[in-house]
Amino acid sequence: MKRIAILAFLIGFSSIAMSQKVMTRSGKVTFHSEATLENIEAVNNQVSSAINVTNGDLAFTMLMKAFTFEKALMQEHFNEKYVESDKFPKSNFKGSIIDFDVAKLTTKPTEFTVTGTLTIHGESKEITVKGFILKNAAGDIEATSTFLINLSDFKIEIPSTVKNNISNSIEIRVKMTYEPV
Amino acid sequence: MSQYKSKFFCLAIIIISTLNAAWAQDDLLDLLETDEPAVDYTIATFKSTKVVSGHSVETNAKGVLQSTIGHRFGRINGGYQEMFGIDNATIRFGFDYGLTDNMNIGFGRSSYQKTYDGTFKWKLLKQKSGAENFPITATWVSSIYINSQAWPEPDRENFFSSRLYYHHSVLLARKFSNLFSIQLMPTIVHRNLVKTAKDKNTVFSMGAATSIRLTKSLRLNAEYYFIPSGQIESTIGGEKVQNSLSVGIDIETGGHVFQLHITNSRGMTEKYLIGETTGNWLKGDIHFGFNVTRVFTLIKPKEFKDL
Predict the structure, then answer these.
(1) Which residues, in sequence order, are bridge partners of residue A122?
(2) The CATH number fitting domain A21-180, selected from 3.30.1300.10, 2.60.34.10, 2.40.128.110, 3.40.50.1820
(3) DSSP assignments along B212-237, one per residue
(4) Domain for residue B12, yes or no?
(5) Which residues of B touch A49 (CB under 8 A)?
(6) Which of A80, A104, B184, B304 has its CA 20 to 30 A from that of B214?
């Protein structure tokens, strides 16, 4: 009995040690739309994200209403008319970092490929993007990524009257600093 | 006994260890979802800071300057000779500025009676759900009006105070899902000088308004101010004072809101709506009118200062 207990304890303990996670609740996601008449930029500084450093699993979640715009009216339109935050309050991503090995991270950014499911406006799409990951001087993992998404993939409609104000192709920038859980 | 204890101890370790192992396989998203739910403030109860001519609960955000130009034409029943009222327009231009997200000040001038107005508007309570709940949005609005027309009787002793009017309202609004909003606006209008001793200086009115979402960029609005009887006895131009009723639509494009409406009121502020409305809907004394608003962001949110 004792041996079994010790064995179970070791397995359990090692599984904790093995599946270490790092996370943040103050990650930054910005997006940028470039159209003929105007550029639109929005910032969300309250993005939650976690990485399972054992296997490279990665997740993000954010409240759409936490995006701040340069113009208050844009923020209202974004929430009310485009992403419909009342119906779909959150966006999230669930996926994994391919060939992730925490031991090989250095203070210089290493390029990784991330693949998974991005859900915005209640619509999900498989995406594969590039990102950079490093381990900073304090020993925390930092990740950045810049990629493009199409609003039409997420059924976000742009009325013809503002076709020149909002681009269908939106640049997303992600910047995270993770801390151990 | 000690054997039992050690068995129990072993069992406990097994259970804890297994639980740990199970926890370790938990979904990462679940880990993130353990957040407290955020407070969700209701947005866009109305599309504009005005329902039609009277104020809505909405305020401009901090650092935002809103310019409004409003027209009200003459009465439609003026016939073709008056081009159904188009010949005879009154205009009001106004500027409103967000000192904070909830506190606005405004200035305007109406061509009708050459009247200047200054407004203080404060959103006291916000409708919210999620981590905190509150059923309504409440906004307080006060205005002072100065009539700058020449004195009608220059020979008698006239006081500057006779040019002044005030109005105070408490606006109480609720948005029902994303379909429609209703608003109540108990209001008093104070006139320093009234025509006859029978007229009350301070007139109480109960207003009600609604905004119904037709499409993402189109809304149907209506506002009505009811004046309980016995407060205003004198007539204006031989016509009795009526309750103000206005119906309109909001058309929203990027930075503009166009409001088109029909109303029995000539003026575009509470002072005119309550106590100076003489049009009778049933007789066709209806004015066509519009407001155009445009917002300018003078001070950017702090997140954008360094960009």
Answers:
(1) none
(2) 2.40.128.110
(3) EEEETTEEEEEEEEE--TTS--S-BT
(4) no
(5) 32
(6) B184
CB proximity B20 to A under 8 Å: yes
Residues 197-216 of B with CB under 8 A from A: 216
Residues in A 97-156 with any Cβ partner in B closer than 8 A:
none
Evaluate whether residue B244 is within a structural domain.
yes
Q: Is residue B3 in some structural domain?
A: no
Residues 6+ apart with CB under 8 A from A177: A24, A27, A136, A140, A141, A142
With bands split at pLDDT 50, 70 and 90, how would you rate the model's confidence at B17? low
Residues of chain B contacting residue A51, judged by C-beta atoms under 8 Å apart: 28
Please tell me if residue B22 touches chain A, with a CB cutoff of 8 Å: no
Q: Compute the half-sphere exposure of residue B104: CA atoms within 13 Å on the CB side of its CA.
A: 30
Q: Based on the structure, what is the number of domains in chain B?
A: 1
Is the Cβ–Cβ distance between A51 and A57 less than 8 Å? yes
Q: Does A35 touch chain B (CB under 8 A)?
A: no
Interface mutation target, options B4, B6, B7, B29, chain A, most CBs of A under 10 Å: B29
How far does A162 lie from chain B, in Å, by closest CA?
A: 6
- C-alpha distances in Å from residue B39, one per residue of A54, B133, B223: 34, 8, 30
Each residue of B22-67: pLDDT tens digit? 554 457 888 887 666 788 999 999 999 999 999 999 999 999 999 9
- Measured between alpha carbons, how far is B31 from B21 in angstroms, rounded to an integer? 15
Q: B23: part of which helix (H) or strand (E)?
A: helix B2-24
Predicted ipTM of the assembly: 0.81
What CATH number did the domain enclosing B56 receive? 2.40.160.40
- Report yes or no on B2 lying in a domain: no
